[in-house]
């Protein structure tokens, strides 16, 4: 944010990049080549089914929490309008790609507001610098401020089946 409360140039550019399909699709090819380990453990690829087409779809997303070996929490930076989010609401049966591993079957569950607040608080505590940089971008993308509670960020738990 700038002194007058408007988003910084960096936040505006980053928010535009999140909406640019070619930019967001590039990591998919890296995961499909089983080279996802280059992203470390904070990123995974989600395979989901198109709610209208029935076709396989892919999204590379940041991991907000990985408290259990068989579960990950991810966030929709574009809110509830993200296509992957709308698709998992229609069909929660997904596959998860992590590191260089083969895809594994999982079930997606949208976290309630309290669970999402706890997950976001834990993320802020673990990664304060990343949150400081990411927060203005997400606020620009969503068009609303992100406070300490009642987060507007939809979060999803992926649990291996």
UniProtKB/TrEMBL annotation:
It comes from the Bacteria. It comes from Mycobacterium bohemicum. This is Nitroreductase. InterPro entries: F420H2_quin_Rdtase (IPR004378), Split_barrel_FMN-bd (IPR012349). Signal peptide: none annotated. GO terms for molecular function: oxidoreductase activity. Transmembrane segments: none annotated. It holds the Pfam family F420H2_quin_red. SUPFAM superfamilies: FMN-binding split barrel.
